[in-house]
Design brief:
- This protein has 187 residues and is an all-alpha fold.
- The chain has a single domain, classed as Hypothetical protein af1432.
- It contains nine helices and no strands.
- The protein has helices at 4-14, 18-38, 42-51, 65-73, 77-84, 97-117, 128-135, 146-156, 160-172.
- Helix 4 (65-73) packs antiparallel against helix 5, helix 5 crosses helix 6 and helix 6 (97-117) crosses helix 9.
- It comes from Pontibacter actiniarum.
- One of its GO terms (molecular function) is hydrolase activity.
- This is Metal-dependent phosphohydrolase.
């Protein structure tokens, strides 16, 4: 199996932007936590989350085919398949829990981070109901595909509100690293 360090090196060889690197890390953390909860391989799930958008910045017109091809060359078919399926409109079937987990965690984790970034208290005190309310505001984080969020939760078999709460809880454990801790107020 690809090592975590090899995966990080692969990510950093194609991704330089802080925002996309943070997105990769947040999806990795949520995927690892779900793997633990579901008795799956935390390393496999985490690396899949870390690498799912690795080629997006360098090869936007070929995404996700570059990273999928590199993983297949390394014999990582399960990860490659999950990454090739992390957007429903690509028409790739969802065969495994890993496939469904990545779909469910990708778009929504990014949306939760967007919700946190506009709050002075960031992740602290953020609740699922607030995230759901923001999902209803089409102008907020307009690039987030709300249908993907809904389909992801359905395919993964999780209640949307519980899923959001789980993501928030995972991210709160890493808020300092992710630079999502409450902002200090100036007096």
């Amino acid at each position: 199996m690809i090592t975590y360090q090899e995966a990080k090196d692969l990510l950093h060889s194609m991704t330089k932007g802080d925002s996309l690197l943070r997105h990769a890390r947040t999806v990795e953390l949520v995927m690892r936590a779900y793997a633990e909860r579901l008795g799956q391989s935390g390393e496999q799930w985490g690396i899949t989350g870390l690498l799912h958008d690795a080629d997006y910045e360098a090869y936007p017109d070929q995404h996700p085919n570059v990273i999928v091809g590199q993983l297949r060359e390394r014999g990582e078919e399960e990860m490659a398949h999950a990454i090739s399926a992390h957007y429903t409109k690509w028409g790739v079937p969802y065969n495994t829990l890993l496939d469904k987990g990545l779909l469910a965690c990708d778009e929504l984790t990014g949306f939760v981070v967007a919700c946190a970034q506009v709050r002075p208290t960031r992740l602290q005190g953020l609740e699922a109901k607030s995230v759901i309310k923001k999902l209803g505001q089409k102008s907020f984080a307009a690039s987030v595909d709300r249908e993907e969020v809904k389909l992801g939760a359905e395919l993964f078999g999780v209640d949307l509100k519980e899923h959001i709460s789980f993501i928030i809880a995972v991210l709160q454990q890493h808020q300092q690293e992710l630079q999502l801790e409450p902002q200090e107020t100036q007096v």
